[in-house]
UniProtKB/TrEMBL annotation:
GO terms for molecular function: SUMO activating enzyme activity. InterPro entries: ThiF/MoeB/HesA (IPR045886), ThiF_NAD_FAD-bd (IPR000594), Ubiquitin-activating_enz (IPR035985), UBQ/SUMO-activ_enz_E1-like (IPR000011). It comes from Penaeus vannamei (Whiteleg shrimp). Coiled coil: none annotated. This is SUMO-activating enzyme subunit 1. The keyword Nucleus applies. Heterodimer of SAE1 and UBA2/SAE2. The heterodimer corresponds to the two domains that are encoded on a single polypeptide chain in ubiquitin-activating enzyme E1. Interacts with UBE2I. GO terms for cellular component: cytoplasm; SUMO activating enzyme complex. GO terms for biological process: protein sumoylation. Its main location: nucleus. Belongs to the ubiquitin-activating E1 family. Gene3D superfamilies: NAD(P)-binding Rossmann-like Domain. Keywords: Nucleus, Ubl conjugation pathway. Pathway: Protein modification; protein sumoylation.
Length: 318
């Protein structure tokens, strides 16, 4: 869907994108300059993706999110101002995203992605979806696959993250080393040469990637070679930000603030942290919950190192 008449690179753009033009060439930069991208879900990972895409020099980027900014969002989303808590997260993140690169058209949409029609997604060349339910991801993935739109999905839960890519029919060049026989001084010798081989990879929509019966002979033999990340992704695509219990945090300037050293390790309860001398404190033997048994998703706040890993992979693919 990238515009056929690629926009010419101006002198200012050539100076700004000089390093990446040297890396992947002028034609690739022109294709970037004509790309329209949707980032749905302005979470920590969404902010990282937005930053890298805006800096790369795409044509336009739209931030889509119906949620209002919270204290927890501020911990992971560097595009959102601390004093904007309570306002729409897409709208308040737009300004800092635009400052990153004035040559890119940055817009925001505060509507719920659930309300978007199929036609809405067709205006983009690339769709990146984060903080979506499994049903939403499957729907958007199918829309993109049917309309030749590149689709990326991903999310981060505490220290666990994943990303999925559907690049349709993707062509790329790979360096391959081959041994060939050459004749030198009348003698045949085997030397190693590097050749550039063009390859094509066909991607599938998310529904097909998740719908695998591992008990069949066809896939059982591939089980050992399949990354454990696939199964983690299978679990967490059914988890949304709304369904994850979060540990309630207290601001350090609050009279209810409890220093970390006063909180015993086993005194963690899924929905709140209590002082051990509080009448509401629940002993772990009655709840069955300890610091070691709390699932990773209960960490609540996205960890920067965790969100950077799938983000780097996603941005490289984009």
């Amino acid at each position: 869907m990238v515009e056929k008449n690629l926009t010419n690179i101006t002198e200012d753009e050539a100076a700004l994108y000089d390093r990446q033009i040297r890396l992947w060439g002028l034609d690739a930069q022109k294709r970037l300059r004509s790309s329209r991208v949707l980032v749905a879900g302005v979470c920590g990972m969404g902010a990282e993706v937005t930053k890298n895409l805006v800096l790369s020099g795409i044509k336009s980027l739209m931030l889509l999110d119906h949620r209002n900014l919270t204290d927890i969002d501020v911990c992971a989303n560097f595009l959102a101002p601390h004093d904007a808590v309570g306002q729409n997260i897409a709208e308040v993140s737009k300004e800092r995203a635009q400052i990153l690169n004035p040559m890119v058209e940055v817009s925001s949409d505060s509507d719920d992605i659930e309300n978007k029609t199929d036609e809405f997604f067709k205006q983009f060349d690339v769709v990146c979806a984060m903080r979506c339910s499994k049903e939403q991801l499957l729907r958007i993935s199918n829309i993109c696959h049917q309309n030749k739109i590149l689709f990326f999905g991903g999310d981060v839960f505490g220290m666990i993250g994943y990303m999925f890519a559907d690049l349709q029919e993707h062509q790329y060049v790979e360096e391959v080393k081959e041994k060939v026989e050459v004749e030198q001084d009348g003698k045949k010798q085997t030397v190693e040469e590097t050749k550039m081989v063009k390859r094509t990879e066909n991607f599938v929509p998310l529904s097909q990637a998740l719908d695998v019966d591992w008990t069949t002979t066809k896939y059982a033999s591939q089980l050992r070679r399949t990354s454990s990340t696939y199964f983690i992704m299978h679990r967490y695509t059914g988890v949304t930000a709304q369904t994850i219990p979060r540990i309630e945090c207290t601001r350090c300037d609050s009279p209810d603030y409890t220093p970390a050293q006063n909180i015993p390790g086993p005194g963690l309860y899924p929905s709140r942290i209590y002082r051990c001398d509080s009448p509401d404190y629940t002993r772990p033997e009655y709840t069955g919950v300890t610091a070691r048994t709390i699932p990773p998703e209960y960490t609540g706040v996205t960890a920067y190192p965790a969100q950077n890993i799938p983000d780097v992979i996603l941005d490289k693919a984009v």
